[in-house]
From TrEMBL:
Residues 1-16 have a biased composition (Acidic residues). This is DUF7344 domain-containing protein. Residues 1-21 are annotated as: Disordered. Pfam families: DUF7344. Keywords: Membrane, Transmembrane, Transmembrane helix. It comes from Halapricum salinum. The chain crosses the membrane at residues 128-150, 156-176. The keyword Zinc does not apply. The keyword Membrane applies. It comes from the Archaea. Residues 24-103 form the DUF7344 domain.
């Protein structure tokens, strides 16, 4: 009876959706993000050795064929002993340590979030939209104050300008998020420069 109860408790944990804290904990480590990326990119299932090679390649910014045995072993051990068991515990993957196979679960869909990777002098999208709103507000304020040349543009033209700038920005933002910022949607993880 005790084993039935523990099996039921384990099933409840898997059926529960991931909490925000669980999601952030899983995504807080680059090896776990890289592992999720590889699994999503390659049919939701991978051999631990193959997974280790890809994660090591991304970590060292080299091709898979260039990964040394020590780099692969370091990642393999870390994934096997720490990262994959943690992800298995949270219900994101099923990790069979004896077989050396990792498989995504349905709960991995809860981790399918956009990552905003901002390199160097790039501006985060949130700051971009704040700046765009400030510029549009300045233009509308100048037109309402009757400042030349803004008085030459009809109100409908100004409204069209504001809507168009946000529409174009949102389309570009959506494009980048779908093609470059999502785990599993590109050859390399979003944070690895191609």
């Amino acid at each position: 009876m005790e084993s039935d109860q523990s099996a039921d408790e384990g099933q409840e944990e898997v059926d529960d959706p991931l909490t925000r804290d669980d999601t952030f904990e899983i995504l807080s480590n680059h090896r776990r993000r890289f592992a999720l990326h590889h699994l999503q990119q390659n049919g939701d299932r991978a051999d631990l050795g193959d997974l280790s090679e890809h994660v090591a390649a991304w970590e060292n910014d080299i091709g898979v064929a260039e990964v040394s045995s020590s780099e692969r072993k370091r990642v393999y051990t870390s994934l096997q002993q720490f990262h994959l068991p943690k992800m298995d515990e949270k219900g994101v993957v099923e990790f069979d340590d004896r077989e050396g196979v990792v498989e995504l679960t349905a709960a991995a869909g809860d981790v399918d979030i956009y990552l905003e990777v901002v390199d160097g002098n790039d501006v985060p999208w949130s700051q971009y939209y704040l700046g765009l709103a400030a510029v549009n507000l300045g233009i509308l304020g100048a037109a309402l104050a009757g400042l030349y040349p803004f008085t030459l543009v009809p109100s409908a033209g100004l409204a069209l300008l504001v809507v168009t700038t946000f529409l174009v920005s949102a389309l570009v933002h959506t494009y980048f998020n779908r093609t470059e910022m999502r785990l599993g949607d590109s050859d390399t993880p979003p944070e690895v420069e191609g």
